[in-house]
Amino acid sequence: MVTASYVSDEMLAMDQDAKDKGLIFLNEIGLDPGVDHMSAMRIIDDVHARGGKIRHFRSYCGGLPAPEAVDNPFGYKFSWAPRGVLLASRNGARYWRDNHVVKVPPEKLFRDMRLLNVPNTGTYEAYPNRDSLKYKDIYGLGGEIRGLFRGTLRYIGWCNSMYHFGKLGLLDMEPRECKGMTFADYMRVLLEADQDQDLRVVAAERMGIPADCLPPWNMHWLGLFSRRPIGKDEISPLDLLGEIMLEKLSYKPGERDMVVLFHEFKAWFEEDDHYERLTSTLVDYGERYGDSSMSRTVSLPAAIAARLILDGKISQRGVLRPVHPEIYNPVLDELADLNIVCKDERTSY
Length: 349
Description:
By secondary structure, the protein is of the alpha+beta class. It contains 12 helices and 13 strands. The chain folds into 2 domains: 9-161 and 253-348, Dihydrodipicolinate Reductase, domain 2; 175-235, no CATH class. The strands form 4 sheets. The protein has a 7-stranded mixed beta sheet, covered by helices on one side. Strands 1-12 form a two-stranded parallel ribbon.
């Protein structure tokens, strides 16, 4: 079995049975997770082979509209399931910083944001992506690593809007009755607003920000305060938001998406007393009127890996991730032939 999905606890529990039966369950072989693991492990294994230790590792990835396709106040368009994007916004996160655990509760996810400049590409917001701690062992970094962070990239402004949407309850999953309601009716109930109150102003008050700030105006731009009928008997706030965002944040014919993947390592080489800063950068664009970058970077690694299995070129068995040279080297090499290239750079100091 080959899948781009994360390894779940239920999947991991099948590891020994799969080994006993000579089966391969290859997971996390898409983009993120997938290409991020493989490009990282190629650098990590090289550092270890040269006698070095990884002290700090930060990994960032985002699926975004190409700059010329950014024509909305969110700076985002959906290249994968809208519900999946919003569900991920409900996650908490953990990462490793200066030898201690940083825990980020779901309601603070978009407040743990930092700006990242990717050379020759632009500046993005980066916020934590799920649980980074488990990759200390998955990547074989054990006790040598002092900082490990995996993050998601968005254009500037996304985190502020999503944080405040969460404060309003727009990411809640409990269905609410809405038969015969308009979007404005639904929001009036959600915000507990009176009939004569301006919904944008009430939303801003609930958020604790001025009414002219971007988050309440983004709600207005989406149409959440409109008299348009919802057309359902019940729907959760998250699904209501997802449906109207998909309508307003979709790619038009001929528009390109973009994938940005950026790794940054700090490695220590004790033998000759020096540090190295190592980076790996992937910037890939979709094809006009053709395949999106997201579809290519998720599906092609899985397809290449499936053929490697069929050709008998993967000897390991059990529940696997693409963190082994016999998997990541041929997959990355073939992706490079398909113009999906991770550019690696190294500086000593």
